[in-house]
Amino acid sequence: MIKKIISVLLIVVMLFSCSVFVSAHAEDIPGFGDYEHVYIIGIDGAGASFGNVETPCFDIIFADGAVCHNAHTERITISAQNWGSILTGVSCETHGLTNEICETTERTSKEEFNSIFYFVREKYPEAELVSFNNWSPINKGIIENDINVKKINKSNDALVTDSIVSYFNEGNSPALMFVQLDEVDHAAHAYGGFSEKYYESIREADTYIGRIYEAIESNGLMEKGLFIVVADHGETHNGHGGNTVEESSAVLAVQGYSVSNITFSEDVKNRDVAAIALHALGVEIPDHMTAEIPYGLYGELQSDTEMCEHCNAVHTDFFDEIKCFFIKLAQFFKNLFNI
User: Fold this and answer.
1) Residue 126: strand, helix, or coil
2) 179, 212 in Cβ contact below 8 A?
3) Going from the N-terminus, what domains does the chain have, and what CATH number goes with each?
4) Are 115 and 90 within 8 A, CB to CB?
């Protein structure tokens, strides 16, 4: 009887200690609140092609950043499913968005799975939030229309980029900016995903990324800024929507003053952008999100923290000591009573 009671107590102690680790470390993972601005540049249909084409602007910007050319997309390689996941941090099956829904339905904050704009607005009521898009359904059907996000839709990528450059030159300073450039996907649909026209569109998108970055930097907004480039899906000769390697691989690159110079591991997902953005701005990642902060994104995560093998929580050295105390205590009683 005594052994059973002690066994139960030990289980309670271990569960309690693990819950402490989980709850206490949400804000202790490196990078939390390091940034005042997050800029997300989405290149529709780019897939992994930034690793296959000459992209000098991209290469310079992310020379010291974290890069992956084969981040996993959603199972369904369609724009709404993936932009929806990138902006909500949940799977496409969970958010349920499709191109048709985004084109016809205005999204509000009353939805079950909100975008990252909603959570940033909740944390920072006065923050400047902005979204520039070539494909306007993102602004209509993914980003909420009742949380005061400035939305600009333009008919081509050059006009989108011009608007962004003007926006920064006018003195604006957004906490969160999302950009969608669409003409890479247009080229794939018109000429095929491995055509020269498609690769030309990648090189053109690279110049737009360079112009956007230059506008941010020249206005003094990169010192505390996190710059992200991500694709929703890749292409094949005949379009996209399936689950081939070409369609389901996507670029994900992150640059900022505290970001490690690494190649992301193979399990990174394009939806992880949602977690990266919120964490950088000091907004706790909601429990329902399956987006994660890629391991190693910040150098301290590799050198100063480790994974708790008993509860899968990242913890610092301080909490490591607490964990060790409880583990040793449990082992002591186990050995003492031969449990």
Assistant:
1) coil
2) yes
3) 2-27+308-337 (no CATH), 37-303 (3.40.720.10)
4) no
Residue with tokens 């399936």: 242
Q: With CA atoms as reference, report the closest residue to 206 among 37, 66, 62, 77.
A: 62
Which has the closest alpha carbon to 230: 269, 258, 288?
Answer: 269
CA distance linking residue 127 with residue 121, whole number of Å: 7
Read off the pTM: 0.83
Sequence letter at residue 69: H
C-beta neighbour count of 128 within 10 angstroms: 15
Instruction: Give pLDDT tens digits for 13-72.
Output: 444 444 444 444 556 789 999 999 999 999 999 999 999 999 999 999 999 999 999 999
- CA-wise closest residue to 339 among 87, 6, 65: 6
Alpha helices per DSSP H over 36-145:
56-61, 79-88, 92-95, 99-104, 116-123, 137-141
Between the alpha carbon of residue 278 and those of residues 38, 111, 118, 281, the distances in Å are 9, 19, 11, 5
CA distance 260 to 37: 18
C-alpha 44/C-alpha 178 separation (Å) is 13
55-78: pLDDT as tens digits = 999 999 999 999 999 999 999 999
Sign (positive or negative) of CA dihedral 243, 249, 250, 255? positive
Asked if 210 and 15 touch (Cβ cutoff 8 Å), the reply is: no
Residue type, 242: G
* 254 SS3 class: strand
Instruction: Please tell me what DSSP assigns to residue 219.
Output: T
Task: Determine contact, residues 98/63, Cβ cutoff 8 Å.
Answer: no
